[in-house]
Amino acid sequence: MTRRGLPVFLWTVIVGSLLAHNVYLWVSGGIHPDTDILALLPAERRDPALEQASVKMVGAAEQRLIALIGAPDWAEARRAADAYREVLARHGDLFQLTDQAGERMESDFLALFGRYRQVLLTTADEAALHNRPAQFWIDTALAKLSSPFSGPQLGAWQDDPFGLFRSWAQARAQETPVRPRDGRLFVSDTRRAYVVIPINLRAPAFSVGGQQLALPILERARQAAQSAVPRANVLEAGVVLHAAFAGAQAQRELSIIGIGSLSGIVLLMGLAFRSIKPIGLILLSIAVGCLGALSVSSLVFEKIHLITLVFGASLIGVAQDYGIYFLCQRLSANSEIDSWQLLRRVLPALILALVTTVIGYTGLALTPFPGLRQMAVFSVTGLIFGWLTVALWFPTLARERAGKPLPLAERRAAASMRWPLICRNRATYSALAALAIFAAIGWSYLSAQDDIRSLHNPPKKLLDDQIKISELLDLPTPAQFFLLRGATPEILLEREETLKTRLDPLVERKLLTGYHAISNWVPSAHRQTSRRRLVEKALLSDDGALAVLAQQIGEDRHWVAALGARLLAPAEPLTVDEFLKAPASEPWRHLWLGKSADGYASVVALSGLGKAGLAALSQAADGLQGVQWVDKVGEISSVLAKYRYAMSWVLLLSYLAVFGLLYPRYGFAGWRALGPTALASIATLAILGIMGKGIELFHILALMLLLGIGVDYGIFFQEQGRADDGATWLSVALSALSTLLSFGLLALSKTPALQAFGLTMALGIITVCLIVPFFRKQ
Amino acid sequence: MRSCVWIIAALALLGAVPAAKIQSMIAKPTVLCGRFDQTKQLVGLKKPVKSRGRFCVLAEKGVLWRSEWPFANTIKLTRDEIVQLQGERVAMRLEAKKEPTVRMINSVLFALLAGDLDQLEKLFEIDGDVNHQSWHVTLKPRTAALARAIGAITLDGAEYVKNIAINESSGDRTSIVFSAIQTGEGAMTVDEAALF
Predict the structure, then answer these.
(1) Is the pLDDT of residue A453 over 80?
(2) Is the CB of A139 less than 8 angstroms away from the CB of B172?
(3) Within 13 A of A215's CA, how many CA atoms are on the CB side?
């Protein structure tokens, strides 16, 4: 094997194994594009308890779906819900319908809490036991005795003569407005009654296959409900709906960008080279790049996110740059020059171009967003594999001039070569001055935007349903909560109780409607003991309310003693473990995170939290030990802001780093390679400002990319042999047009982050392409 | 007398209307007020607990239950809330917004008012007999939960309900006797009307 044959052979082996690996991946189903909408959000690996809390608050709901079937009349709502349920019940392999509201709920409830009734008090009753005279409790007991109805009863009068347990049970019941009714779960607003149907999805919510199976059935169930009762409406919420929507959108965009870019490149290459071979070669380098990107990404990451593929599709427009450059050089070079000699001549430029582009993509990997890191790895490997294909195969595959350039291209190229050089005459100075004024105006409009919505932007119908369901069910917000830690369950419960004393005034000020906590159900042992004493003193003592009551209703001391004994709480306190084992705890178990390496942790969840409440709540836990306010939305916004700021500096430093890279080859003239990109970035920001776009992290990251790709064009222009060399202009124009096409299509994405990338890149590339000839070598 | 059936329905989340024949015997005024005498026999108490007072039933509005003796205690049920007043003090307030069963209780109430007997028959098995001007009905809850909550109910009446007896599963028993029924505009006193 010749010295030149070896790398060709080695690369053939590698590409062969890439191909085999890809075939294996697709055949074995190893590539499941992931549609996890949270994948773009920053990970919290540093804090396991916080991560666990977030996962439980949001993630545990992954497999959950909730459907509300409403109608103006309960009977109608029931009929529609039964029709809906029936459709889902036929697909038991996909949907698990939780049992209809059981008969056992109340007896289960009493079996556990009935034993501890005397220590289960509302805060208001506890205060009243401290403050109110015995007469207050005697009146309460007498009223309860005589009234034919005083709210739902729990057991006989003698089990709860003062109504304390009933108030507590009522307060607990009011933590959710959902009630069992006719064997179903019922909730209502002023106009409609709803049947609540909780559904567990058996297929993974983020698998495209599962979504494709589940969604049509849900659609049929909706139709069944509506044909049973035309007035019925169906509200649905669930992670799977968002994921399915995001997935379908990503797939649509993937094919638009993929097919659009590819056909655009084929057309461009056809027009430029008027020959099949260059088209085939470029497609080959793109294909190897994509195969490599898929292989490596699937080895590095557990799952490849669909959004990575959408972004990755724009790689098509970048990975061909090196091939085009080589082919254009081949086209213009003397046909006596050997392809390998040509490669040796263009290799430094190719290496610099690759390294700078890799630097551009690396910016993505520096952020804490797993999705962006995946995009970076995918793109960088794709580029490297595409580049290696050019470097190792093209000299052999493109031995002779392939195709002939269009005269038009050469004429345009020649014309551009006559463009004035920058800083050589007054016209270019005036142009620079005009640009400066334009930039100043544009930049004055710039504002920052760090909204979580740029990461996930669900359609209105999904959002509306979700808001309505949250209102109807009074669901706690999954994004804001308190995370509490303590060495023992008892310490944790006591900390919850302290926190709750700070939350109660906020509930009274209507900043939130309520809170959910395990300590609502299981008071700390300390609190249980103090309540026992309180009840014994205020109600059961010799001259307490019970004794006086007995006189009024004609009962004797024995009666008082017997009833007192009956009302006494057991000495052993109710424990969290006991509660968690009982069926009544089912809706609240996610609040208890249990034991971890550094003790116990729990969540206090908040419902009915408005914007006004956020500020007050974020300070509610100030100074409390072991209590942490968690605001996922705020946190993500602040992460976005922090990295927008940090990446702006990284961007500036990258310009310095790239200049340093170029220095050995071009010396101080390296500014000519860097200048177009820098000016284009300034102009792009100005245009974005005038367009009224708030600058996000993703715009800055796109400018990193623009540096990586735009500087390639500058490099190619510094490499040109003769001043009227059309090959350089042709390759830059072709590269720029195909990059523009890819990112322009990405700008149509409905995912705001990708759209920001696409738009910034498209604007930047156009500008670079227009001004780079001004910066050519003298 | 249907009015008292409403009370039961409203009060105990259950309602009962026997056959169409009984329905035809019962008057349907928009306002109905009267006196009640209630006796409760509670498990664990030697003596029965007695109380008496006035009640009113207003079509489309709700129910008022006012104990006058041995002390003043008022319960008012409307579509949006159940309020218990001990003298002037609000001893308890259940809002429909927070406690959906309030609206359910009221929807049963209003279903009765509208003559929607189907709704009630879903909750209870109705068994009754009629003799000339009077009738007797037994309501048996269809679900165990309802049986636990309220137990069995018997009603006696003619044009209006005369007696109601409730036997709770806990063993507590309530018997209510109605008298001095008035209907129409003048049935309510001024301060009763002020509560609505």
Answers:
(1) no
(2) no
(3) 17
Of residues A139, A142, A157, nearest to B172 (C-beta): A157
Q: What is the DSSP letter of A399?
A: -
Distance between CA atoms of residues B168 and B153, nearest Å: 9
Interface contact B104-A153, CB threshold 8 A: no
Closest CA to B10 of B119, B163, B126: B119
Q: Say what percent of chain A tops pLDDT 70.
A: 89
The DSSP result for A307-359, as a single string, is: HHHHHHHTTHHHHTHHHHHHHHHHHHS-TTS-HHHHHHHHHHHHHHHHHHHHH
β-pairing, B134-141 with B124-131? antiparallel
Q: By the 8 A CB rule, do B125 and B107 touch? A: no
Which of A19-33, A93-107, A399-413, A711-725 reaches the highest mean pLDDT?
A: A19-33
Strand A447-448, strand A694-695: pairing: parallel
Helices in A114-238 by DSSP H: which ranges?
Answer: 123-131, 134-146, 164-173, 208-228
- A397, two tokens: 């595959």
* Residue A99, helix vs strand vs coil: coil
Q: What span, in angstroms and rounded, lies between the C-alpha atoms of A293 and B95?
A: 60
- Residue found under tokens 């005795």: A145
The larger pLDDT score, comparing residue A655 to residue A26, is at A655
The answer, for A551 touching chain B at a CB cutoff of 8 Å, is no
Q: Is A220 exposed, middle or buried (0-12, 13-18, 19+ CB in 10 A)?
A: middle
Q: Is the peptide bond before B70 cis (omega within 30 degrees of 0)?
A: yes
Residues 133-152 of B with CB under 8 A from A: 143-145, 148-149
What is the distance between the alpha carbons of residues B73 and A298, in angstroms, rounded to a whole number? 73
Tokens representing A283? 């497609």
Min Cα–Cα distance to chain B from A152, Å: 7
Q: Whose CA is closest to A208, among A142, A303, A137?
A: A303
Could you report the predicted ipTM of this complex, rounded to two decimals?
0.79
Say what percent of chain A tops pLDDT 90: 23
* B169 contact A CB<8A: no
Buried-exposed string A56-93: b where 16+ CB fall within 10 A, e elsewhere: bbbbebbbbbbbbbbbeebebbbbbbbbbbebbeeeee
* Residue A71 clears pLDDT 80, i.e. is over it: yes
CA separation for the pair A101, B46 (Å, rounded) = 38
Q: Name residues whose C-beta falls within 8 Å of residue B191's C-beta, 6 or more positions apart in sequence.
A: none
Q: Using CB atoms, which residue from A107, A151, A158 is nearest to B94?
A: A151
Q: Three-state SS across A350-387?
A: HHHHHHHHHHHHHHHHCCCCHHHHHHHHHHHHHHHHHH
Please indicate if any CB of chain B lies within 8 Å of the CB of A74.
Answer: yes
Nearest Cα neighbor of A377 from A452, A327, A328, A315 is A315
Check: CB of residue A394 under 8 Å from CB of residue A284. no
What pLDDT is stored for residue B140 in this prediction? 80
Average pLDDT, chain A: 84
Segment B144-153 shows an average pLDDT of 70
B17-76 residues touching A, CB cutoff 8 A: 38, 40, 42-47, 49-51, 65, 67, 70-71, 73, 75
Burial class (CB in 10 A: 0-12, 13-18, 19+), A46: exposed
